[in-house]
Amino acid sequence: MTEGHYTIAGRRLHSVFNIGSRALTSHSLNVHAGHDDVMSCADCGWGVLFGRNAQEAGDLCLISRRAAEASQTPFMNVQDGFLTTHTVESVKLMEPEFMKEFIGAPADRIVNLMDTKNPMMSGVVQNQDSYMKGKMAQRWYYDRVEPAVEEAFEEFYRKTGRRYDFIDSYRCEDAEYILVGIGSYMETAQTTIDYLREVKGIKAGCVNIYCFRPFPAQRIVSALKNCRAFTVIERMDDPLSTTGNHLTREIKAAFCDAMTGQMGHEKIDRIPPIFHGAAGLGSRDVRPADIIAIFDNMQKESDGQDFFCVGVDHNLTLKQTEDPDLRPEGAFSMRGHSVGGFGSVTTNKVIATIGGQVFGKDVQAYPKYGSEKKGLPTTYYLTIANSHIFSHSELEYVDLVVLNDTTALLSGNPLKGMIEGGAIFMLSPFAEPAEVWERVPAHHKKTIQEKKLRVFFIDMVKIAREVASVADLEMRMQGIVLLGGFLKLTPYADDSGMTDAEVYGGVEKALRKYFGKRGEQVVQDNLTCVKRGHSEMQEISHDIVYGGNGQA
């Protein structure tokens, strides 16, 4: 496969591959986020752009296409596998008319390789006398790539107001310590930078790399040369490289050229201490706590750990000291504990769609499950806010916990991180609140009482069994009952000023998006489940929760 990438580039086939980057199978199989797959092809002669979120992935796809055709060079448009590819987020979609205008007419930009009036050779055999001449002649095309990318960035900004560049420096003007990286966790870094500056008084900054090929060496040196120290994190680990992973090696080489004033660099007289580490391999969570630990390590300067990892228990792991809640002000977050096949992940997507398209909020919804998925534990997350949600990490601070699978109460701590006064929405086959409360483990009862949590329950399985007109959808339809509870437990429907008919009209539209291909009856069955979830949900009363110290 890798040699095919060289061939596509060498024949000037200016295609664009949209990549959900994933960890390559090593000691085990993993289908989640990693950058080792892209980095293994980084030197095949392709342009490589990286987006941090769904909006950027879509925008950069269009930019890649324009740059690829202008330079006759193929491009990879990369987003983090699973973490971005499987996340539902608010985006501003581009109109088809605009996309056609931005790309231009194919006949004006694409070389016809089969034009009999202008014949050419491609893919021939070349031996010692010819191969190197052809290879070096390819540099004419690569000299055009950087200007083509820059022009595409500028034109996209002019047309849309959304600015992209080879790198994006955030609060680096006076930064003493800077974090450098690629992909979704750099948005988590950005909101953590604000916390470090405004709460901790640390002059922190971060540099996100949008364009890895062509590598923006001079821009990176310019952004980093005046800081006291900087750190590079990468979603991969190459232990046999003694100087670091791919991005780290490139940056160190750039600073080496800058010290000697070569390769077009303005000569510099110092290189800041460079730390580097592995983070987020196989979609391992990268939290604000990890970002803070990285800055703590940088501030030690000569005593800092040159190479580190975060997020796992290892002798190279940096110690976490705090993990602040960095959600936007007024944000609402939900965490669900379910089983693969219950329809919960799809329900989470439907709720996010309604939050964004019906209530006009910014949303972020994503699942966490393994390669095996069906029949095994699944966790899903949702945040709704009035502004962009920067953090791309598992939710530790939540307002609502959903228990589609109540065995989570016995095998873990699903109430961890609940905000005081939050709510629990749980499956129960019992009709009486006292019976439900009786079966909650004592240590969870204590948490509910101490945090003043409200507890709601409903028999999702019974409703799905009674409503589903297609037998094989009974199990999957139980998840959608949650949507009715969500509408009742959150203020968004009331705050929108919409009538019930308008709200359910929006709900039906979202349901049709996800289930319409199964037929109108399935859409209406799901809508019935939603309405029954809204009307049949019960609350365990204050008297039961707190009477007799909470014992039923």
Produce a short descriptive summary:
Helix content is 39%, strand content 18%. It has 552 residues and is of the alpha/beta class. The strands form 3 sheets. An 8-stranded mixed sheet has the order 4-13-14-12-15-16-17-18, covered by helices on one side. A 6-stranded mixed sheet has the order 5-7-6-9-10-11, with helices on both faces.
How would you portray this structure in words?
It contains 23 helices and 18 strands. The model has no long low-confidence stretch (mean pLDDT 94). An eight-stranded mixed β-sheet has the order 4-13-14-12-15-16-17-18, with helices on one face. The protein has a six-stranded mixed β-sheet with strand order 5-7-6-9-10-11, sandwiched between helices. α13 (344-358) packs across α21 (500-515) and α17 (460-467) runs antiparallel to α22 (520-536). It is of the alpha/beta class and 552 residues long. The chain has three domains: 2-160, Rossmann fold (3-Layer(aba) Sandwich), CATH 3.40.50.970; 167-309, Rossmann fold (3-Layer(aba) Sandwich); 332-550, Pyruvate-ferredoxin Oxidoreductase, domain 3 (3-Layer(aba) Sandwich), CATH 3.40.920. Helix content is 39%, strand content 18%. The longest helix has 18 residues, at 54-71.
